[in-house]
Amino acid sequence: MQNLKSLKQITENLSVLYVEDDENIASSFKNYLQKFFNKIDYKENGEEGLNCFLENQHDIVITDIRMPKMDGLEMSEKIKQINPNQNILITSAYTNVAQFLQSIKIGIDGYIIKPIDYDNLNSMLYKISEKIKTYKDLESYKKNLEKLVKIKTQENTKLELEKIENYEKTLFALIDIIENRDPYTGKHSLRVAEYSKLIAEELGFDKDECEELYKAGILHDIGKIAIPDSLLLKPSKLNDNEYKLIQEHVSIGVHMLEQIPMFKEISEIINCHHERLDGSGYPNKLKGEEIPFKANIMALADSFDAMTTNRIYKGRKSIKEALEEISSLKNIYFKEKIVKAAEKVLKNIVIDNNISQLPKTTLEKERFSYFYKDTLTRLFNERYLDFILSKNKNEKEYSELYIVFLDDFSKYNKSFGWSVGNQLLIDIANKLNKIYDGNIIFRMHGDDFVILASQNYNFDIIKFEELKLFISEYSKDIIISYKKFDIKENLIYSISKLENLI
User: Fold this and answer.
1) Range(s) within the chain of domains with CATH label 3.30.70.270
2) Strand 60-64 vs strand 87-92: parallel, antiparallel, or unpaired?
3) Following DSSP, what letter does each residue of 255-284 receive, concatenated?
4) Contact 392, 442 (CB under 8 A)
5) Of 299, 312, 374, 499, whose CB neighbour count within 10 A is largest?
6) How many helices (H) and strands (E) does the chain have?
7) Residue from 104, 45, 107 nearest 72 by CA
């Protein structure tokens, strides 16, 4: 759940355009937005909304889809033509697939289903606001650099002018790259930059050296622009070949930066930020003093942020746990002097509890469907069930588990063929989604289904009888039954444990 105080702090100076034709919904929603945003413009249709945006250029646009004169998707598309980086949230009471796909194509940042889940809304607003803050910080940084470089142009030669041009082109390109990637990547880089600078300051580095490390931190993962989401967002550990592929981000980033003479020292830091003192790192397996001191600072900062951030396949460590692990790697991965400085400056930092690679919004969950969705039924698959059960051990979001068994389904396949059997499984999956809407449903072992529910969930027997009747219309031979399990009582925190119970 998003901390409302931190949400207020990050949103209060941002402006919002809210477009909704239903006055009752609009009144309630505006009142809620006013808790966080100081400037809100409200319009009743897309045409008025577009005109208002042209005059004010808001930070965030929130719009309904179905409206008179101009619908929300058409307005959003026109706004994106004006400003491709504009942050837009869609609200809708309908889950129309065509509209959803169109919103992805337009580049919508989030899709909120009515009635509004305000916890989900808060998470989206925080994520977008953090993204805007990151962009504005980088814009400010860019403008300061331009100002400094402009002063130099008045004093120096043609060579300085060429450096200015390179700086500007590179900064604009890198800002676009960072902001167009997944929001986690940009925020991770900023955190690594801040941690690196804190450690460098503690070690007595001068201002210029600290700023150099900060710049390197912002850009250290820029090579990941060439790494596909199928690797970056993989919900389990990488295999050897995948790990080798993702290691390429270092050489890609260095190649991008070393083309610009003034980035030479920064590129050297970035080139070694995955090297380890014992030679176990990459890309060149450097050891000890072969590794630049600043690169070892950033390596520690990068590792610390990875440890204290929720990853797709594992939970975060506390600051204390992360620093203890880093201490155990002293003189193995990191120089002792750097570890001691890190322990001093990082022990009291505040880490946002919302830092996570886990999917929150509808759009993010769809991006994960490559890994988590069963290709036939489009229900969640066994891999996601195993992941959710493992995560539930700590989060305790679900307390009850129901398995729906389809016995003798193989007879149906033999009688009517696999394609007909597959279609029946699809129909059953759709029926389950409809009658048990609001629960998370998985396909397991081909013809069984799992439903996860929160505490004291009332499993509707009438609806289950409705499902039995539905299946009997296809075949009298298929026997459907279900079994309920208490997750905590049975310690069901993995698929293997569940399989042992059934």
Assistant:
1) 373-501
2) parallel
3) HHHHTSGGGHHHHHHHHTTT--TTS--SSS
4) no
5) 299
6) 23, 9
7) 45
The answer to which of 68-72, 191-195, 274-278 has the lowest mean pLDDT is 68-72
Tokens of residue 197, six digits: 């600078």
The three-state secondary structure class of 352 is coil
Q: What pLDDT sits at residue 313? A: 58
Contact 237, 383 (CB under 8 A): no
What pLDDT is attached to residue 119? 83
Are 403 and 444 spatial neighbours (Cβ–Cβ below 8 Å)?
Answer: yes
Are the C-beta atoms of 131 and 85 separated by less than 8 Å? Answer: no
Whole-model pTM: value is 0.54
> At residue 225, what are phi and psi to the nearest 5 degrees?
-60, -25
The residues of the chain that CATH labels 1.10.3210.10 are: 181-346
Mean pLDDT of the region 356-370: 59
Distance CA 41, CA 50 (A): 12
**Cis preceding-peptide flag for 283 (omega within 30 of 0):** yes
The total number of residues written for the chain in this structure: 502
pLDDT over 90, % of the chain: 33
Q: Which two tokens stand for residue 48?
A: 């008025």
Could you confirm whether domain 373-501 is CATH 3.30.1130.10? no
Provide the pLDDT for residue 339.
Answer: 97
Candidate from 65-74, 162-171, 300-309, 491-500 with smallest mean pLDDT? 162-171
The total of other beta-carbon atoms located within 10 Å of residue 483's CB is: 11
3 state SS of 444: strand
Distance CA 390, CA 313 (A): 10
**Topology of domain 181-346, per CATH?**
Hypothetical protein af1432 (1.10.3210)
Of residues 409 and 224, which shows the higher confidence score? 409
Enter the CATH code of domain 4-124.
3.40.50.2300
Partnered with residue 60 across adjacent β-strands are: 16, 87
Please check whether residue 406 is in contact with residue 458, taking contact to mean a CB–CB distance below 8 angstroms: no
Strands (E), 281-435: 400-407
Q: What is the pLDDT of residue 387?
A: 82
What would the two tokens of residue 479 be?
A: 């026997």
**Residue with the two structure tokens 């969950």:** 365
DSSP 58-119: -SEEEEESS-SSS-HHHHHHHHHHH-TT-EEEEEES---HHHHHHHHHHT-SEEEESSP-HH
Cite the residue boundaries of each domain of the chain with CATH code 3.40.50.2300: 4-124
Give the angle subtended at the CA of 123 by the CAs of 122 and 128, to the nearest 5°. 100
